[in-house]
Each structure stands twice: as C-alpha cells, then as structure tokens.
Amino acid sequence: KFPDVFGAATVGEAYELKKFIRELNCEKKHFKFINTGTVDPYVTLWGVRPTRYIGESYCQPIIDSADLEKVSSTRLTQSKSPKIVIAGMSLRIEAFLDVDGSYCAGKSTSIILGDSEKLKSLIAILNSQVVSFWFSKYFNSLSMAGGYFNIGNNEIGLIPIPNILFQV
Known about the structure:
This protein is α+β, with helices and mostly antiparallel strands. It has helices spanning about 10-20, 65-70, 75-80, 115-125, 130-140, 155, and strands spanning about 5, 20-25, 30-35, 40, 45, 50-55, 55-60, 60-65, 85, 90, 95-100, 105, 110-115, 150. Helix 2 (about 65-70) crosses helix 3 (about 75-80).
C-alpha cells in the first residue's frame, strides 16, 4: 500500500498561514516556508529563488512554530516530521526530502510522512525518469498549457510503487 499522501494546507489554512509568514530575522523556533515554486528534484530553492505566495514575494520566508500552532496543530506536527514535499504543479514530479523537519509546506504542495529511511528510498523513486515517464503517459489527458501537470494527493497515490518498500 502506498503511504498516506496529504495536502500541505487547505485553502483556508493558506490564508491563515499568510498572516504569519515573514522574512527570516533572528527567530529561533521557526520553519522555512516553501511552496511549489521552490521545490526541485531532491532540493529546495528556499533562499535561492523568491517564494511567491498569495500575491506576495519573499526571499527567506519563515513561519514561527507558535504561529503555526495557532493555524493548525496538525500542520505543526507535519512540519516537525520527516517528510517528502512534492511540487503541486510542474512538468514532472519534483520532490525533496525534509529529513529533519525544517520546512512548512504551503498550499499547492503535497507531503508524505514516514520513517526517514523509507522516505529516502521513496524520494529516489518519485524523482526518477521512469516515474516521470509513467506519470506523463498515465495523466496525459490532465496536462495543461506548456505540458504542466497538477500533481496532487490522488495522482501521487496512483503511482505504482513496489509494496516491499512499505512493509514493516
């Protein structure tokens, strides 16, 4: 069985999160805030490329842990956890591993939580050319202008992954 895939934020949460996003200063307990535009295969472009989020642009966006808990204790727990973050709109699957729980993923991303060792194997599969090829053929009818795909929980959950990866 494929691991559970979650949307990183609901639309309502996205607007609540926006109230608390700010540029990195000296905060100690914070998460780096990312979204679809700052996720590439195996890496995040946080601090390298501006993060666009609901009409604003940030260079090094963060959200304080206490503020995130005000929005959602579930999102706080997810942000603290090892996870794979998957871009929600791209030409192919773009995913990176947040092994130490440093990132809060915004709207239009998906996340997969789990054991960090199993996530290391899964990230290689998700970013592979084989999965990208399969994805482009299986979801060909869903491609938008320029060949971009909306990649969400349902689409990720349909990727044929060997069951042995998820056995205890």
